[in-house]
Task: inverse folding
């Protein structure tokens, strides 16, 4: 199977998944409303009571990006699980096409959906007073961090269908990803948390990812660690997530092809 | 005659459940072959194995000239699979579905669009081409499914229960399409739990039960395997029904309607003897009729008398 065919197969699948996303108006609408509502909620409802040392909108933007990405990954997990229960996937698999293209389509569509949500968070943030001090190069680096993180999460989510056979089970994945960011530095600095939670917040993978964005945009992290230090850990975390998704995915694929 | 499918000793277990037990299958090129059996007999597993979706635990098969295990890609190039549910994308329109599949078969964009338009017209879907497939009726979905199958004429088409859940008119349409495909020289492996469907379409039939082939042959061969005629006896009361049940071996028994069906050679002498025998046993028949055995009779006599509910169609 030539590379040109593999690329063409992937293109077809990306078109398919993008169309499917656009034709699911409820999910699409929710995905677009969520960043706006959460931003307004955190900044205007909770933000007044939270003391982070800086204007709250300046603190919370990276956290909301991660939270929305978690929600987006859940959407992806459900989309893939629904798709896998459909006769069409059997047909794809019985065709002489690159089998990876089915997942590539989903992952790409997931990336596109999540980047739109991220752009909304950034846009609304700027609209209500977020003032990053980043240079163009830092903006570029932050964008790179976001793309890498969303890619890793989308891949993991797309692979979840191997574990979760039904859309309902896949939905539990959203739930987990929606809550992990709360015990991180997404919404409050780790120093304000009680002992065990603080330890979790300081050692869980979302924190360095959030801190990298925060450091790049605002010039300093909330943990006090240098941005470069957080960035290396963040990239390593994304690498580990990708490795788990790839390795775990193919292991499960070998063991669960019976369906 | 060359075989399009030649499988031998195919076995597959899921956990402790033995889904297929040394199944041999030989399908002549250009024929329609029906794999007939009740739910859970292993029909779908067999199709999934031959379509490269599931690896058999044991056994070998050559599909359209390609070894199933050594050259799955070659197999995939020669087959087209439609699953138990129409294998179409319900969020895409009929046209988009066809164009997508044509692109996946590596037709250039323009050729894909042209082929899609041709097939939409041929399968009577031109008016619905820009509607989402999810809004199609069951029959239209199946037609779209079959249209996709015909984008590039495959050597072998798998139809897994193609008419399950269709109304009689749509079923007739699907049957017509299957016959057209067969006339075109496409080899078809069809699974069904409907005996009339196998009877109508298949050149050869294998009867699958609990993962084993329990009978094979043409519809006529299978029917004559249980006698040339079936004598249907109805009894007036439960006692004579019970007595009759003890003294003959029916191919089918219905306690509620007090009906027994017994195989015979159809000669008057044998029927007379049977009736005399019953009368002597204190079980006089109230009504007697004879008919040619149907595949139902074969099916029931081979798979036990508990017919799957679906047979009552």
Result:
């Amino acid at each position: 199977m030539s590379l040109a065919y593999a690329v063409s197969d992937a293109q077809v699948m990306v078109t398919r998944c993008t169309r499917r996303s656009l034709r699911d108006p409820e999910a699409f609408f929710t995905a677009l409303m969520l960043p706006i509502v959460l931003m307004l909620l955190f900044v205007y409802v909770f933000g007044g009571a939270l003391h982070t040392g800086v204007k709250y909108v300046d603190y919370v933007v990276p956290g909301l990006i991660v939270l929305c990405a978690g929600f987006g990954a859940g959407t992806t997990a459900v989309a893939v699980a629904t798709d896998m229960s459909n006769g069409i996937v059997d047909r794809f698999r019985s065709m002489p096409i690159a089998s990876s293209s089915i997942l590539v389509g989903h992952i790409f569509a997931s990336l596109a959906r999540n980047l739109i949500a991220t752009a909304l968070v950034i846009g609304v943030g700027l609209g209500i007073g977020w003032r990053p001090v980043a240079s163009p190069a830092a903006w570029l680096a932050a964008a790179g961090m976001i793309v890498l993180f969303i890619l890793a999460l989308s891949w993991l989510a797309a692979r979840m269908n191997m574990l979760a056979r039904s859309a309902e089970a896949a939905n539990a994945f959203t739930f987990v990803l929606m809550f992990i960011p709360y015990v991180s530095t997404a919404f409050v600095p780790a120093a304000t948390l009680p002992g065990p939670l603080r330890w979790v917040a300081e050692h869980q993978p979302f924190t360095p990812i959030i801190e990298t964005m925060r450091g790049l945009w605002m010039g300093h992290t909330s943990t006090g660690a240098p941005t470069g230090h957080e960035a290396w850990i963040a990239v390593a975390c994304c690498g580990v997530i990708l490795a788990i998704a790839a390795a775990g995915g193919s292991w499960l694929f070998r063991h669960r092809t019976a369906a | 005659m060359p075989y399009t499918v030649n499988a031998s000793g195919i076995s597959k277990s899921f956990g402790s459940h033995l889904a297929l037990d040394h199944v041999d299958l030989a399908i002549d090129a250009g024929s329609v072959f029906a794999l007939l059996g009740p739910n859970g007999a292993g029909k779908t597993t067999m199709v999934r194995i031959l379509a490269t979706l599931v690896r058999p635990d044991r056994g070998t098969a050559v599909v359209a000239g390609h070894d199933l295990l050594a050259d799955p890609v070659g197999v995939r190039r020669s087959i087209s699979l439609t699953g138990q549910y129409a294998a179409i994308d319900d969020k895409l329109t009929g046209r988009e579905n066809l164009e997508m599949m044509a692109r996946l078969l590596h037709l250039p964009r323009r050729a894909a669009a042209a082929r899609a338009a041709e097939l939409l017209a041929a399968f009577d879907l031109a008016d619905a081409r820009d509607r989402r497939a999810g809004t199609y009726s069951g029959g239209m979905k199946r037609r779209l499914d079959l249209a996709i199958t015909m984008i590039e004429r495959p050597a072998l088409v798998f139809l897994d229960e193609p008419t399950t859940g269709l109304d009689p008119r749509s079923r007739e349409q699907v049957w017509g399409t299957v016959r057209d495909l067969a006339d075109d020289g496409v080899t078809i492996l069809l699974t069904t739990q409907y005996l009339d469907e196998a009877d109508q379409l298949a050149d050869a039939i294998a009867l699958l039960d609990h993962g084993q082939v329990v009978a094979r042959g043409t519809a006529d061969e299978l029917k004559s395997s249980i006698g040339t005629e079936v004598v249907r006896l109805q009894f007036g009361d439960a006692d004579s029904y019970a007595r009759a049940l003890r003294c003959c071996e029916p191919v089918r028994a219905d306690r509620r309607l007090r009906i027994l069906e017994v195989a015979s050679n159809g000669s008057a002498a044998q029927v007379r003897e049977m009736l005399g025998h019953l009368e002597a046993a204190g079980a006089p028949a109230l009504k007697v009729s004879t008919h040619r055995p149907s595949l139902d009779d074969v099916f029931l006599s081979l798979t036990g008398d508990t017919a799957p509910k679906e047979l009552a169609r």
